[in-house]
Amino acid sequence: MMTKTFLTKSIFFLALAMVVIACQKKQKKRIPMPTTDLSKVSLMPKPVKTVPTHSAFALDQFTAIYTSKSSTGFEEVGKFLSKKLKSKINLDIPVNEETSNIVERIIYINQSDSIELGATEAYQLYINQDSIILNANTAEGAFRGIQTLRQLVPETSNDTLAEQAIWPVPSGKIVDNPNFAYRGSMLDVARHFFNVEDVKKYIDLLSYYKINVLHLHLSDDQGWRIEIKSWPKLTEVGGSTEVGGEAGGYYTQEDYKEIVQYAAERYMTIIPEIDMPGHTNAASVSYPFLNGNGKTPKLYEGTHVGFSTFDTRKDTVYSFIDDVVREISEITPGPYFHIGGDESHVTKKKDYIYFVNRVEKIVQKHGKRMIGWDEVAIADIDSTSISHWWSSEENAKKAIEKGMQIIVSPAKKAYLDMSYDTLSKHGLHWAAYIPVDTAYVWSPEEYGGMPLENILGVEAPLWSETISNIDELEYLAFPRVIGYSELSWSIPENRDWEDYKIRLADQAPFLDRMNVKYYPSPLIDWKKSKYSYETIEKD
Ligand code: TNX
Fold it and tell me: Under 8 Å CB-to-CB from 174, ≥6 apart: which residues?
């Protein structure tokens, strides 16, 4: 008769045998081994210096995050990292928690006054087997650092190394800081309106690539998109339509604050633009006194430019502008206010100069630094104002003669609304076709031979005449905007198309996971795999 013990033992051995067999089967299969060479991970933008030590930090359920608590912002950075890791690998990593769980490995996010970390956004990352130490002078620097860390965590775990899932983070050291302080993109929400959720998604994606400025083009001929409490018709009337005639839309001041706050949590500055004296049809439809020609214009749903202007000689126009600049400045913590100033083809030159001179003073009165498209440099403006160089080299040079700083956005190279090629589904091509290589293979430091000390940074504007939803926005912005992030963050010595191409291909798993409808450029050998493995058994 079989005893109970015998039965139990048999079941145990049977189970053991099954496990052994299963393991053997597993061993016969190709065992994916994670790449542990830090220099082979596709970081984007490329850091200043990466030193691999060929081992790995095993990120798993026994990992915890600790941050400096005395310096503001560090704990939030830790929480941001934990939240992003949760959505990437579904692990709950505690932040500054006294936990009864076993903690075997720690990610420290430290405030450090080290001189090497002098630049505001600089950080250093030390990845060892049992700890990751992220040092930064400021929470902003730590925030840039955790973007790098997010990119170092593989998309899938390696379950062959231990009983529990492990995400091996390649070990080594990364020393990094940005090449330019201003790394931006612009979104035109005037030609087509994009709602708060769309803008937040764009912000979140940009911040992953260390972009720190989002310039919002809030008004144009086709629409006025921000609530001005003292002039309510701007949005009631001027915000009611868009290119193509769909219902437009606008941000209430609460919506705008929500965008500003969401951006601030990602150390991103929002720059509001109210384009004037041209590009003002929507404003003049709302309040016809603004154009001074005695006519009430109609809402405009086409895509022509250069036909509208404010009356530059009427004091009431400046009181209006004062209210607009005041209300927006009050809810904009960033230092800049963009006044547009482009393509004012029906404003006489002397009136244009008079206008820009006066509006600059209004912007300054409300505590902001004025930015204007490159045309503004023909006015008598201050060296503290900034010229946004999009077209005319002559204007950019004038700005530099005035001691101004410039933002580099040449339409031929950096306009996200230019089609990739003749087959592109969206976009214009008045400046150029901009395939993914053209977008990357140029140097903002050398373009037009402008003195380096006058270059504040780089911005990639996305005009929205041909795009009306987030999928179309993403088609034009991605992948090119990733290249602009590298042109503004990485030093010239670290920028190389052949190397970039490979790193760009590796962005596919992230973009797919984020549901980004990027343009799958045939120039790139897109990696659809979850994670690049080196395998023991070669094919
Ligand atoms: C020029 S760039 C414009 C915009 C258009 C864009 C289309 C600039 C300062 N003005 O009004 O939307 O071209 O590419």
Answer: 38, 43, 47, 49, 50, 51, 124, 125, 127, 148
Across the range 126-133, mean pLDDT stands at 96
- Kindly name the residue from 343, 393, 445, 472 that is annotated as catalytic: 343
Q: Which residue pairs, CB below 8 angstroms and at least 24 apart, start in 94-98?
A: 94/64, 94/65, 95/64, 95/65, 95/66, 95/67, 96/65, 96/66, 96/67, 96/69, 97/64
Exposed / middle / buried, residue 175 (Cβ in 10 Å: 0-12, 13-18, 19+): middle
Asked whether 374 and 395 are in contact (CB, 8 A), the reply is yes
Q: Is 389 in the pocket of ligand 1 (CB under 6 A)?
A: no
The whole-number pLDDT of residue 82 equals: 98
**What would the DSSP string read from start to end of 82-122?**
HHHHHHHH-----BS---SS---EEEEEEE---GGG-STT-
- The alpha carbon of 463 and the centre of ligand 1 are apart by a number of angstroms equal to 7
pLDDT computed for residue 16 by the predictor: 39
Q: Can you spell out the DSSP letters for 121-189?
A: T-EEEEE-SSEEEEEESSHHHHHHHHHHHHHHS-SS--TTSSSS--EEEEEEEEEE--S-SEEEEEEET
What is the Å distance from ligand 1's center to 275 Cα? 11
Q: Read off the pLDDT of residues 314-335 as tens digits, 9 standing for 90 and up.
A: 999 999 999 999 999 999 999 9
Q: Which ligand 1 atom is at minimum distance from the Cα of 428?
A: 14
Q: What is the DSSP code (8-state) at residue 203?
A: H
Eight-state DSSP code of residue 417:
T
